Amino acid sequence: AQSVTQPDIHITVSEGASLELRCNYSYGATPYLFWYVQSPGQGLQLLLKYFSGDTLVQGIKGFEAEFKRSQSSFNLRKPSVHWSDAAEYFCAVGPSSSNDYKLSFGAGTTVTVRA
Amino acid sequence: DSGVTQTPKHLITATGQRVTLRCSPRSGDLSVYWYQQSLDQGLQFLIQYYNGEERAKGNILERFSAQQFPDLHSELNLSSLELGDSALYFCASSVAGDPHNEQFFGPGTRLTVL
Question: Which terminus of chain B is less hemmed in, N or C, by CB atoms within 10 Å?
Answer without folding.
Answer: N
